[in-house]
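Key result, reporting period 2: structure in, sequence out.
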């Protein structure tokens, strides 16, 4: 009987460990400086962005989902007509060499690719964005969300935190159509590019506004 009890306890421990097993989440982002976005009124804006494929460059970029403790393996390929870019996991606890701040980590040049690998150590909602000429590139569309759920995918605000029944992602942003009309592919490499005055005229939730919502 004692042996049977030990087997049952061991089995329960194994099942519990498997439920919270850490995994590797693989994602792909293609970096582009030439794409477009149709706004709610039919106006088509030039945009930069990150997409899952070469032909699909949404703004914002794809949302990356994982659980606390998972390893994120983010493959990136830059096809941007000569410009260098980075991907910065804003607010995440990331090794410096994977941080995407090009002065201290790396820069992905045109037709280069790399894998960024780090562990999602804290549950939460994070932003990723290009850290090269950030004022220009983020406004032009180079941003997206990373959702780190509680360990094991638990429906709690954080590991051991209050429970919830349903969650929503509201990534709010804005666009100045004059920037998108006047800043073309020829400008994206200039760190000292003189940007126009900023007067946003589109306000977005998850990339949508007005009748698109």
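The corresponding designed sequence is given below.
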């Amino acid at each position: 009987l004692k042996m049977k009890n030990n087997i049952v306890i061991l089995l329960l421990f194994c099942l519990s460990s498997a439920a919270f097993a850490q995994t590797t989440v693989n994602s792909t982002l293609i970096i582009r400086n030439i794409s477009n976005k149709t706004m709610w009124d039919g106006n088509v804006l030039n945009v930069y962005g990150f997409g899952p494929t070469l032909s699909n460059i949404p703004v914002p970029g794809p949302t990356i989902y994982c659980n606390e403790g998972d390893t994120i393996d983010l493959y990136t390929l830059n096809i941007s007509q000569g410009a260098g870019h980075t991907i910065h996991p804003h607010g995440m606890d990331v090794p410096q060499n994977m941080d995407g701040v090009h002065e201290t980590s790396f820069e992905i040049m045109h037709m280069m690719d790399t894998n960024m690998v780090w562990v999602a150590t804290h549950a939460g909602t994070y932003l990723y964005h290009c850290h090269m000429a950030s004022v220009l590139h983020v406004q032009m569309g180079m941003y997206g969300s990373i959702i780190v759920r509680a360990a094991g995918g638990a429906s709690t605000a954080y590991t051991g935190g209050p429970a919830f029944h349903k969650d929503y992602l509201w990534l709010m942003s804005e666009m100045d159509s004059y920037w998108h009309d006047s800043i073309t592919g020829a400008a994206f490499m200039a760190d000292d590019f003189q940007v126009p005055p900023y007067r946003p005229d589109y306000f977005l939730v998850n990339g949508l506004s007005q009748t698109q919502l």
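The helical segments are 2-19, 134-139, 177-182. The beta strands are 24-38, 44-51, 64-67, 71-79, 88-90, 113-119, 124-129, 143-149, 172-175, 202-205. This case is discussed further under Risks and Mitigation.
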